[in-house]
Write a structure and sequence with these properties.
Layout (H helix, E strand, L loop, with lengths): L58 E2 L5 E2 L3 E3 L21 E3 L16 E4 L2 E4 L8 H12 L6 E5 L4 H11 L7 E5 L3 E2 L5 E2 L4 H14 L4 E5 L7 H9 L4 E4 L3 E3 L16 E4 L4 H14 L4 E4 L5 H9 L4 E4 L2 H4 L3 H15 L30
Parallel strand pairs: 3-4, 3-16, 4-7, 7-8, 8-11, 11-12, 12-15, 15-16
Antiparallel strand pairs: 1-2, 5-6, 6-14, 9-10, 13-14
Helix pairs in contact: 2-3, 3-4, 4-5
Length: 372
């Protein structure tokens, strides 16, 4: 099990600030009524800010997986990490979720595969990847030399697919854990996604749990009416943590409006547009389970990180914003530490759950109807 350690950022040490010292209240002179002594107008001495180097940013996701900080990069947006090695100091990240990996190689969906949308993007890559054996051979050796934990995002079309990939990853140096992408069509259930059925989600989670001792995170889909029973089923089946959310299903129309734009017709919507949905799913999932929840969806600045922490997430993944600014995740680490120092917090954990209710609330499925 990895020992917890304090996150050290590249931010300069916060200089000790000199606040004015409040003068002592003057004593009443003989014959002078005490009520006539005017109180000091100098404000109380403010506490000195905490240095960012003293802020504990470590995150325990269970089964020995301790992240150095709560800022990860999302699957499909950071490749296998190596692609960004000359741009980003990967060891300053909290974790890397690598590109979706399947049992056999996949060429992906027909083009076009990506298009911009208002406040986001649609993608239909189709899990293009070289297959698990090639991923291990090409990348695991490099991962093993990094300090940052690398989680392999695993996808499949059957329970057997998921189990076999997990078995091949088990014990591989450089692989710190698995993020299970269950938003895939279950060929044994007529193409129904594992993620939208509690029974199917629990089945694949339990099967993978039996196949590996690696820390297991399971990624939730937002394309359901009520996330709570699915989250509970996954937690009960042995997941160590949840990640939420995966993309929302959407389409775009081609120029000329004679057909859908994407070659696969359907794509996954990501970016700032999905943040309110992601906040809602995290807010509800956190109230339904006792395992950690890692948030994903529209993170572009520190305010987004703070919002997700407030609704109960213990960490966040940065995704679509990386395409515009690969340095954003590392910068967010520094900014989060700086915010904690500004508030004189020695741990970022004081920011978690501040917006949660005292007791579990009704699900959003019963709370969003229009009421005049």
């Amino acid at each position: 099990m990895k020992a917890k350690r304090r996150a050290i950022t590249s931010s300069p040490r916060v200089a000790e600030q000199k606040y004015p010292v409040a003068p002592k209240r003057p004593a009443a002179r003989p014959g002078m009524p005490a009520s006539s002594v005017r109180p000091s107008t100098v404000r109380p001495v403010a506490p000195a800010p905490v240095s960012t180097i003293d802020v504990d940013l470590t995150v325990d996701l269970g089964r020995g997986l301790v992240l150095p900080n709560p800022i990860l990069v999302a699957s499909g947006t950071f490749g296998y990490g190596i692609e960004y090695g000359e741009v980003v100091d990967v060891d300053r990240l909290g974790g890397i979720c690598c590109k979706g990996t399947t049992l056999k190689s996949r060429i992906g969906n027909p083009t076009p595969r990506v298009t911009e949308t208002p406040a986001g993007m649609l993608n239909s890559i189709g899990l293009q990847n070289p297959g698990v054996d090639a991923v291990i051979e090409k990348y695991a050796g490099t991962w093993a030399t990094w300090k940052v934990p690398v989680l392999v995002n695993v996808a499949g079309e059957s329970v057997r697919d998921y189990v076999e990939v997990a078995r091949r990853l088990d014990g591989v140096p450089g692989v710190a854990g698995i993020e299970l992408n269950i938003s895939c069509p279950n060929v044994g259930a007529g193409g129904l996604q594992f993620a939208i059925d509690a029974g199917a989600a629990a089945e694949v989670t339990a099967a993978v749990r039996r196949a590996t001792d690696l820390p297991l995170l399971v990624k939730l889909s937002p394309n359901v009416a009520d996330i709570r029973p699915i989250a509970r089923a996954i937690a009960d089946a042995g997941a160590d943590a949840l990640t939420a959310i995966n993309t929302l299903s959407g389409i775009a129309v081609a120029p000329g409006r004679h057909r859908p734009l994407l070659g696969n017709i359907y794509g996954g919507l990501s970016g700032p547009a999905v943040k309110p949905v992601a906040l809602r799913v995290v807010y509800e999932a956190v109230q339904a389970v006792r395992i950690p929840v890692v948030a994903i969806g529209g993170v572009t600045e520190l305010a987004d990180v703070l919002d997700f922490l407030a609704v109960g997430a213990v960490a966040v993944q940065v995704g679509t914003a990386i395409f515009a600014d690969p340095t954003l995740p590392v910068r967010l680490v520094d900014q989060l530490a700086g915010e904690c120092g500004r508030r004189s917090m020695t741990s970022y954990r004081d920011l978690i759950g501040t917006a949660l209710p005292r007791k579990a609330e009704r699900p959003s499925a019963k709370g969003v109807e229009y009421r005049p």
